[in-house]
Amino acid sequence: MPGRSVTAGRTTADARGEVVVLLIGMRVNRFWAVHHWGPVFLAMVRMLRELGRDKSLGLLRHVLLTASPRTYYVVQYWESKEQLYAYAHSPRMFHHKAWAIANRKERAGKARGHVGLWHETYIVPEGAYEAIYMDMPAFGLAAAHGQVPVERRGRQAKDRLAYRSG
After folding, report:
1. CA 80, CA 21: separation in Å to the nearest integer?
2. Which of 13, 59, 103, 156 sits CB 3.0–4.6 Å from 142 for a disulfide?
3. Cα(153)–Cα(166) distance, integer angstroms
C-alpha cells in the first residue's frame, strides 16, 4: 500500500469482542452494458466516500478488491452490527437511495441481468477470528482494529483463537 509503512516481523489484529465484516460487490454480467453497471460501480464509490467523511457512521476500514475482470467487491469492517444496520436503512444515506433505485428497476422489469449485486455479512464472536501479518503495513482486520505484535495474542493460530480480551 503506497505511503503506509511496513511493520517488520509478525503482527496480528488487535480486535476485541465481536467483529463485523461486510462483503459487498457487483458482477458485470454484460460488458457492453456500461450504462447499467457503470452507475452501480460509481454508487459503490460514492457510498465509501460518504462513510469515509463521517466516522460516526461506524465504518472502521474497507478494502476494494477484484475477483476477476467482472467482479468487484469491498471488504468492510464495522464498529457494530447496529451501525451497519443504521447506515443501510437510513433515508439520509446514499445507500437507501441506491437500493430504492435498484428495487424500482427490478419491479419495473428494467433489471435485465446486466449487473449482479451481492453482499454477505458476518458477525464474528470473539474467539472465532484470528489474523497474522508478516512484514505488512496494517491491513484488513489490523487496519480496522489496530496492529500488535503476534506474541500478545499467541504465536500459533490456536492460541490467537483462544485469546479473550475481557
Report:
1. 9
2. 13
3. 13
Name all contacts of 86-94 with Cβ < 8 Å and 24+ positions apart: 86/57, 86/58, 87/51, 87/57, 87/58, 87/59, 93/47, 93/50, 93/57, 94/43, 94/46, 94/47, 94/50
- Strand ranges for 44-95 from DSSP E: 59-66, 71-78
C-alpha cell at 62: 474497507
pTM for the full model?
Answer: 0.90
51: left (phi over 0), alpha (psi -120 to 50) or beta: alpha
Q: Please state, in angstroms and rounded to a whole number, the distance separating the CA atoms of residues 115 and 38.
A: 9
Residue 65 vs residues 26, 127, 157: alpha-carbon distances, Å: 11, 26, 25
pLDDT in tens, 24-53: 999 999 999 999 999 999 999 999 999 999
